[in-house]
Amino acid sequence: MGSVVPARVCPLLLVDGHHLLWSGTMGFPAEIRSRDKTRELTGAFAFFALLRCVVRDDLDTTAPEIIVVFDGEQGSADRKTEDADYKANRPTTPEALKPLQFLQPVKDGLDAFGFAWTEVENAEADDSIATLARAHPDRPVRIMSGDQDYYQLLDADHVRVIARSRNAGKRVIGPEEVTGRFKVTPAQWADYRSLTGDPSDNIPGVRGIGPGTAAKYLSGGLTLDELPTSGRLTGVKGQAVHDAWPDVLRWRDMIRMRTDVPVTAHPTGVPSPELPKAADVIAKLGLW
Fold it and tell me: Using one digit for the tens of pLDDT, what is the confidence trace for 234-248?
């Protein structure tokens, strides 16, 4: 996992806001309601409860500066222009979109307690987080999200991902965990996913190419651009990659995160205040 960050360096904790809002609303162990039982508060309560737990229990650093990053309303537009099927598999029923009702209360809660957040209209949170991470190579960066696309940002001394869904003690993910599990490096992640696909974003990948085959094709640090002339694309599966090649390159471009987003948050290098209890946030917002 690496050594603990020296106290003199203020780490940067970048929180994937929509991911946390969805996982909290849909996966919190108990429904939280107002005292008169007329309003559900689960999403807002869970957001702050889970964030507090991560800072308290899971960080491998000293007290961080926290910035919550939300998807812009038109964040997916550019990728959908490139591929109309991008995220088209995500349900849009009222139940599936239930977390959105808690978005404004969460933002209000962050404001009320002095926590920074940012949202760029035409950028996904992934791209804004990637921009912030790359803009501060002098600071340890931790990204709170269960989205594996962030693996492409990992490096041994700078960026790690915290996935709350994993077992305690195994929630901080670095390059060694990615290489050990997937047999590719973080630098190869977009190449790897363009071959295997990414069901969460409705990227199909090459038919018949699973994780093992994709890792074999990229073994030894090979890049996707080197693959066609590597001699590795043989047989039926190799032909499938050749046939899908324009799509593979397009999928890779969609998976790659942008690092040029005009984010509105400007890290200060100063640790954020101590996170309040979730119940205190709900009380301050007058929602009980």
Answer: 999 999 999 999 999
Alpha helices for the chain (secondary structure H):
17-27, 42-53, 77-82, 103-112, 125-135, 175-182, 189-196, 211-217, 235-243, 245-255, 278-284
Q: How many CB atoms lie within 10 A of CB 134?
A: 16
Model pLDDT for residues 168-213, shown as the tens digit of each residue? 888 999 999 999 999 999 999 999 999 999 999 999 999 999 999 9
H and E: helices and strands count for the chain: 11, 6
Are 107 and 51 part of one and the same domain?
A: yes
pLDDT digits (tens, 9 = 90+) for 19-45: 999 999 999 999 999 999 999 999 999
164 and 271 in a common domain = yes
In this structure, the answer to whether residues 196 and 94 fall within a common structural domain is no
- What pairs with residue 144 in β-bridges? 15, 162
Query: Which residue from 3, 16, 264, 17 is spatially nearest to 161, judged by alpha carbons?
Result: 16
**How many CA atoms, within 13 angstroms, populate the side-chain half-sphere of residue 3?**
4
Closest alpha carbon to 51 in 9, 3, 14, 97: 14
For the chain, the first-to-last Cα distance in angstroms comes to 41
Are 191 and 175 members of one domain?
no
- Residues 108 and 121: their CA atoms lie apart, in Å, by 18
- Domain with 205, as residue range(s), is 186-255
Name the token pair of 246: 């324009």
Residue 54: other Cβ atoms inside 10 A: 21
24 & 141 share domain: yes
Instruction: Measure the CA–CA gap between 245 and 235, rounded to whole angstroms.
Output: 15
Is the distance from CB of 16 to CB of 10 less than 8 angstroms?
no
Are 58 and 164 contained in the same domain?
Answer: yes
